[in-house]
Design goal:
heterodimer; A: 115 residues; mainly beta; 6-stranded mixed sheet; 4-stranded antiparallel sheet; 12 strands; globular; B: 113 residues; 11 strands
Chain lengths: 115, 113
């Protein structure tokens, strides 16, 4: 079945460092891919998405490119801030019509940014 | 546009009791999904309701059930609570079409004592 694998955390970086969080997936067909972020005590917020191969999703300085050849959707940011400290989840969508409302998540990667 | 609203935010229940959680999706969204989040198991899909019908179901025991009303609001019920049911329960709202994103509520933190 479909699955998502993320790099294990926690990831600890200094402010202004470069961030990469790896995400790979297994899926039949052509799912959409997402990154969600969760701040302490909160629900998940959609960070960015990509709906087809070679699409690049971007938001708030974060980017991720849908790579079908390597089945990857790695999250990157050029210069992290303390306020980026959170847990990041990679997810893929259901591909068929009746799976549309279901998301499959990776295990989450905790990011801690130190001043 | 109002976001996804979950009530209550926090609950403390005793083993053996039952609990009902509520979720109001974004206006116009017909799909509501429920997830359980725990430190050990991460985010696990419980079930999805679309136009008042359960469309998808995860691997949870029958003690976990749900329903959706004609206005798309959804409730989730857990009967005969166990200590292991302590978790953050998240509701997600979407159009329900394939390859669409979901928007999450802030969750209900359930503690079973």
């Amino acid at each position: 079945g479909n699955s998502v694998t993320q790099m294990e955390g926690p990831v600890t970086l200094s402010e202004e460092a470069f961030l990469t969080i790896n995400c790979t997936y297994t899926a039949t067909g052509y799912p959409s891919l997402f990154w969600y972020v969760q701040y302490p005590g909160e629900g998940l917020q959609l960070l960015l998405k990509a709906t087809k191969a070679d699409d690049k999703g971007s938001n708030k300085g974060f980017e991720a490119t849908y790579r079908k050849e390597t089945t990857s959707f790695h999250l990157e940011k050029g210069s992290v801030q303390v306020s980026d400290s959170a847990v990041y989840f990679c997810a893929l969508s259901g591909e068929s019509g009746n799976q549309g409302g279901k998301l499959i998540f990776g295990q989450g990667t905790e990011l801690s940014v130190k001043p | 546009k109002a976001g996804v609203t979950q009530t209550p935010r926090y609950l403390i229940k005793t083993r053996g009791q039952q609990v009902t959680l509520s979720c109001s999706p974004i206006s116009g969204h017909r799909s509501v999904s429920w997830y359980q989040q725990t430190p050990g198991q991460g985010l696990q899909f419980l079930f999805e309701y679309f136009s008042e019908t359960q469309r998808n179901k995860g691997n949870f025991p029958g003690r976990f059930s749900g329903r959706q009303f004609s206005n798309s609001r959804s409730e989730m019920n857990v009967s005969t609570l166990e200590l292991g049911d302590s978790a953050l329960y998240l509701c997600a709202s979407s159009s329900g079409q394939k390859n669409t994103e979901a928007f999450f509520g802030q969750g209900t933190r359930l503690t079973v004592v």
